[in-house]
Specification:
Blueprint lengths: L9 H15 L3 H15 L12 H13 L16 H22 L23 H12 L19 H14 L3 H6 L5 E2 L4 E4 L2 H4 L7 E4 L2 H12 L22 H15 L6 H15 L5 H8 L5 H10 L3 H8 L1 H4 L3
Helix pairs in contact: 1-2, 2-4, 3-4, 5-6, 5-10, 6-9, 6-11, 11-13
């Protein structure tokens, strides 16, 4: 049990923890997630000395979030409880928070007595070619309008070129939603297709790891046509993709846009991250020199664990992938 007062209220500690993690260079997405999870906890947890929080307090809260809490989602489905992955994310946020408190203030860590929630990796479902084609088609026009006084008609969607560009860039690069939304026009070289994904708060790259990715001719053409219509299309500091009121496109707006286009196209479970899965699997299947180590760099993963899951789905031989990259064998040592 925790009986080691620190003189630090939970609300104050959360602010200090978020500042510390920002200074560490964590991605804005991770920092925002930590901040949201901890402040949501504080809505049900009395603002007491952090040293008085017990393992039972944490277990009770995790049980509540798993069994009773129902989130309000911008995409609907408000009857669904939190997924096992979301519960695991809450646990990870608590673990990081109390580890920091233990290291910085010597507070007893209640998480030592809180077992990690069971978590089953979600099934990776990539888009099919037919589904992507249907979504690109759905970008172009609104649903058919029917009136009593004139023939039915369809109108072009005002965001058609932007949405097509978003879809093709996501498909060609495997970027995370936060990374796509953080891109500026100057980060993209349309002649070569080179995209500079910046690290830290500015670029949204997870874990503060920047990298270079590429887009092909179709995606370059789509981005060029979109920017050609914009007054700021040649301003390197302007957002690559704009949302409402000419502000940078947000993750939530991107997720909602993909969900709506998917629904219109008859594509189930359409979301931005699904393009990341689609890119990874098709990269391994279609690239002659596509190996898991290069894919790891393109996706910005710190380990090979997730990339190995893509291998299983792509039916690629891990032994062959390693053989292609082995210096000892290729140099005939």
């Amino acid at each position: 049990m925790n009986h080691k007062p620190s003189g630090l209220l939970i609300s104050i500690a959360i602010g200090g923890f978020i500042q510390f993690k920002a200074a560490e260079g964590l991605s804005p997405s991770t920092i925002s997630s930590y901040d949201r999870i901890l402040k949501q906890w504080l809505e049900r947890q009395p603002d007491i000395d952090v040293g008085k929080v017990t393992a039972q307090d944490i277990r009770n809260y995790l049980t509540y979030m798993r069994n009773d809490y129902v989130p309000q989602r911008i995409t609907g489905h408000n009857d669904r409880k939190l997924s096992s992955k979301s519960i695991r994310n809450i646990y990870i946020a608590f673990k990081a928070f109390f580890r920091w408190l233990s290291d910085e203030f010597g507070v007893d860590n209640p998480m030592a007595k809180v077992p990690a929630p069971k978590f089953q990796e979600p099934v990776i479902e990539p888009f099919t070619q037919q589904e992507v084609e249907a979504m690109l088609k759905a970008c172009e026009y609104k649903s058919e309008a029917k009136t009593t006084r004139r023939r039915s008609f369809v109108m072009r969607r005002p965001t058609a070129r932007r949405d097509r560009g978003c879809i093709l860039v996501l498909l060609d690069t495997g970027l995370r939603a936060s990374e796509l939304c953080a891109l500026k026009i100057g980060d993209v070289e349309l002649k070569t297709g080179r995209i500079n994904v910046k690290h830290g708060r500015e670029g949204g790259a997870k874990g503060g790891k920047g990298r270079i990715v590429y887009i092909g001719k179709a995606a370059r053409r789509a981005v060029w046509r979109y920017l050609a219509e914009r007054e700021d299309g040649e301003d390197p500091e302007a957002p690559l993709f704009l949302g409402a009121h000419n502000r940078p496109l947000t993750k939530n707006a991107l997720r909602l846009m993909i969900t709506q286009i998917g629904k219109k196209a008859g594509v189930k479970r359409a979301n931005p991250h699904k393009f990341r899965h689609t890119f990874a699997i098709n990269y391994l299947r279609n690239s002659k020199n596509g190996d898991i180590f290069t894919l790891q760099m393109l996706l910005g993963h710190s380990s090979l664990e997730i990339v190995k899951r893509y291998l299983l789905l792509a039916d690629i031989d891990l032994e062959r992938a390693h053989r292609l990259a082995s210096p000892a064998d290729n140099w005939r040592l």
